[in-house]
């Protein structure tokens, strides 16, 4: 529940929506929300008969807890889990606005997650991975595939130059360290 709320601080959710997304009962979610509101982790408000819940972004715990949740349940972990076991993926990175926020650059919360995959992965397989990641992260995920020759070219395409000039969050850290 904390990952859902803290990794989407711009949103608020009803208890029913939280229960549905987490596969839990509404009474169980209600009890947990009660404890988290009292502890100052969440804010709640009523809109008619509906109780809306959101992350307490004004809490001193907001930044460190968000960082912890980001590392353990965020896009990097979800995407790494989907791509790491594939032999046809040589390298994979998150780039763009999400990568910039991940490394600490200020700016608005990104609307989507841009991923670059280097290798020979089948586009249909990458589309399925993007769909699974989007479902898990509740944000659009765009995967672009490049062949190794395009990524390592001494005279790269403008797209490659632009991606390389910005922040990159590697998704396959363990594989890169093993080589």
Topology:
Elements: H1 2-6, E1 13-14, H2 15-22, H3 26-38, E2 42-47, E3 50-55, H4 62-73, H5 75-83, E4 89-95, H6 97-102, E5 113-119, H7 123-137, E6 141-146, H8 148-152, H9 158-165, E7 168-170, H10 173-178
Parallel strand pairs: 5-6
Antiparallel strand pairs: 1-3, 2-3, 4-5, 4-7
Helix pairs in contact: 2-3, 4-5, 5-7
Mean pLDDT score:
91
Task: Please count the helical segments.
Answer: 10
Beta-strand percentage?
15-25%
Rg (CA only): 19 Å
The secondary-structure class comes to alpha+beta
Helix content: 40-55%
CATH topology name of the largest domain, in short, is: Beta Polymerase, domain 2
The CATH level-2 architecture of the largest domain is identified as 2-Layer Sandwich
Q: Please identify the top-level CATH class of the largest domain.
A: Alpha Beta
- Main sheet: which strands, in order across? 6-5-4-7
- The parts where pLDDT drops under 50 for at least 5 residues are 175-179
Q: Would you list the SSEs in sequence order as H and E?
A: HEHHEEHHEHEHEHHEH
Give the overall silhouette. elongated
| Terminal-residue CA separation | 37 Å
Please give the largest β-sheet.
Answer: 4 strands, mixed
Number of strands: 7
Task: Tell me the number of structural domains.
Answer: 2
